[in-house]
Amino acid sequence: MTAATAGADKKPMSKSKAEILDAAAEVFMKLGADTASIDDVARHLGATKGRIYHHFPSKGVLLAEVCLRAADFVHEVVGPAVDASATPEANLRRMIALHIPEILRTLPYHKVIIQSYVGMNQKSTTALERELFDRIRVERRQYEDIFRNILKAGIEDGSFREQNLSIALQSVLLLINAPVFWYKPRKNEPTNFVADLTDQLADMAVSALR
Amino acid sequence: MTAATAGADKKPMSKSKAEILDAAAEVFMKLGADTASIDDVARHLGATKGRIYHHFPSKGVLLAEVCLRAADFVHEVVGPAVDASATPEANLRRMIALHIPEILRTLPYHKVIIQSYVGMNQKSTTALERELFDRIRVERRQYEDIFRNILKAGIEDGSFREQNLSIALQSVLLLINAPVFWYKPRKNEPTNFVADLTDQLADMAVSALR
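Predict the joint structure of the above. Result:
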């Protein structure tokens, strides 16, 4: 499976399921995934708990599906953008230019990922939850591999400096995910804020590697 | 209060209190701060709950003190290293060269910080807990300001490129804290691993700013 076709085996998501995931991401972000309950999500959605349980058998599954969708969002946007004929630097810039607006567009999902970062597996008890968290790891790994390949190509062709690939990869990924930690949408945000932020982080990431 | 004297107003910590904080950091890291109990910390320490409650009136206070100490560790090592006569780049390299080994030395504390990153305040209910979390915010801000001043000086003297200072600051801080997310001490770790990691991240951070 290539990056561009990751997810091609997935069924399209129903509007109802997507709405529940949006609400869950919002509620988990605000209350913390540990504290928030299915009741809180239902209340936010103005729906019954039954509607949520129809799609998600437990809070653990709902949380896992939020994390999985977070990975899917960026993967589906960035994966197809890699151009085998472009330079590593051009590819990296293009990937970052798509990655950053996408994480800001789907910010609550990525905030939940951070919350769940440590000990994601400690609390998942059912087989279905474990299976979902395994899928999240695979999908994240696939997404990271798109970046790993570009960094590797850049080190090999000399456009990036000789360095430990894993450290470089983790550092670049954290750099381009940095806004998840601090970004808060503001009413009076300058219209070009996201574009400027994206440019600056692309510059920083490319410079950091050179 | 300058960076170098931050904490000068604090009483030295008793060995008993420091031992409890070390144990708490370890247990919170492993079990998750939400899941772990005072009982778990006592068991890890081979001590009674009473000994812990003698120093820390609640789990919330214990968690806050772990987070506060995490901030103190790096602040006390990095703060005094700033040399007003050195260039911004030389200062930044020196700060990073101290910061990274220190976060690896005190890794469990910093892993707990990540866990507690989102919604740190949502669960703190007592006045003492709120006061502690306010102090954490102040101390973290003071630590960030050391870096902010160096970045600002570098942009002003042209050694770093003209860019949004806040974005640059958050990005560099995340870059040099990246190992907290992925580093796991290994038995067969090459002896120069930490030194190489530190060099690479210092190179990346400085290059990212130029």
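Confidence is low (pLDDT under 50) at residues 1-8 of chain A.
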